[in-house]
Amino acid sequence: MSDVSRRTFLKGIIAGAVIVGFDPLQRSWVTTASAATEAFPTFDGVLYTDATSLSEAADDFGHIIHRQPTAVLKPGSVNDIIKIVKFARRHGLKIAGRGQGHSTYGQPQVEAGVVIDMNSLNTIHAITPTYADVDAGVIWSTLTVATLAQGLTPPTHTDYIELSVGGTLSVGGIGGTSSQYGVQADNVLEVQVVTGEGRLEHCSPTHKRKLFNAVLAGLGQCGIIVRAKVKLIPAHTQARTFLLYYTDLTIFTADQQILVDDERFNYVEGQAVPNGSGGWMFMLEAATFYSSPATPDNAALLAGLSYNAGSEQISDSSYFDFLNRLAPTIAFLKAIGVWGFPHPWTDTFIPAHSVNSYISSVLANLTLDDTGQGPVLLYAFKTANMQRPLFRLPDTEHAFLFSILRTAPPIQAVVDAMVASNRALYEQNRDLGGTRYAIGAIPFSQADWEAHFGPVWKEFKKAKRAYDPDNVLTPGQGIF
Ligand SMILES: Cc1cc2nc3c(=O)[nH]c(=O)nc-3n(C[C@H](O)[C@H](O)[C@H](O)COP(=O)(O)OP(=O)(O)OC[C@H]3O[C@@H](n4cnc5c(N)ncnc54)[C@H](O)[C@@H]3O)c2cc1C
User: Fold this and answer.
1) What angle do CA 33, 38, 41 make, to 5 degrees?
2) Stated pTM of the model
3) Per CATH, domain 238-439 is 3.30.70.330
């Protein structure tokens, strides 16, 4: 990318042609030489309008939705974010923060508005024994390398750790330790936010609590998260991973619930995997973290579990390599070009009472053509430690994450069919008391969102009115 746009803007201002707004039909900034108009803000960072920057921001990991912004700001400071939000508000432009753009259905995109690429705000300000104070553009892998150097770790990681702090705090951030620690958004002591009015606010559970509740797992609706204090705990150095295979879904889900209840492992996840004869079997993935010279007691860890005899695979790695375990697969997918294919993902939360019947019926009709060989995640968690009001879960003690992480060939009809299937699966689960995780590719109307937020919808709407009264922020979610 170049800084052509900034030079263009500066030139525009020097020449007396001040940018006053945007014409969505012409996809161009509107300028006037009128002395009565205000000057376009100058930035510590750079505002880009070149074609490459715009088309990158008009895409995401899903490669399904494409909404072209008119500018991309790489902020050099929080002040830049304040300035662009105020400018956008005055001129009727929409704004969205963008972390790594790993959403799958246009969530970080803005048609004819401004995308704030948070990557340029990526300072780790402090690591203390109990928290890290970080900019929202910091990537979790970078943060974890830095905290591990001090024997500390964030309690919860997503499976893929090349995601931004601001991005996952905005959606939730679930992983195999979430039963014990909650999602990443549960592990935040304080957040700094630029609201839709362009005000910088600090909020925490005890200060401006309503804003705190509205931005964590708040899908970018009430503010751009610019900085956060994320919890840290003492880290172990090693991980032992156990892969246990099951033929029977009900035994698999029962064992997972035993493990998340007794917490004998630090981490519990699982997948439906092809059984080699056109159907599905199940893989329970559990890990225990330890530091030499201590070693895990395999027999105690596996006691009472009913996996297929002799199917267990046990391996050791460093704790960091465990967290970073997807890296080799992703490097391979990038090398063969599949990483750039469309990803019509569906991510849902299933109430425990329905998991066996619902999953059996879905898997009975799910083929490898339907998944595009992408993984099918299925794992239990306790809902008690997930306390963010906007992270919507089934109203049950246990729930299951069910994700079909589809890869589609770049053929529109195939993508459309997968997205339609996502919607149908969502509706079946919703009717059983299930919810969705807002990172996937499920078409959703405003009425769907209202139903999704259910008992917290009123509060959410109030917060939106209070903190983003002109509805400037994050239109890609389609909520307001
Ligand atoms: C390979 C892979 C594996 C994944 N594994 C997991 C997993 O194990 N668990 C899990 O929970 N998720 C997982 N995800 C999903 C991931 O958490 C979400 O897609 C997340 O949004 C990605 O973070 P990001 O930085 O790319 O955010 P983006 O996609 O850039 O943004 C997500 C949303 O948040 C908004 N946003 C971004 N930054 C900010 C900010 N600073 N302030 C306010 N709003 C902001 C955006 O506008 C958008 O609406 C995975 C994704 C991929 C691609």
Assistant:
1) 110
2) 0.94
3) no
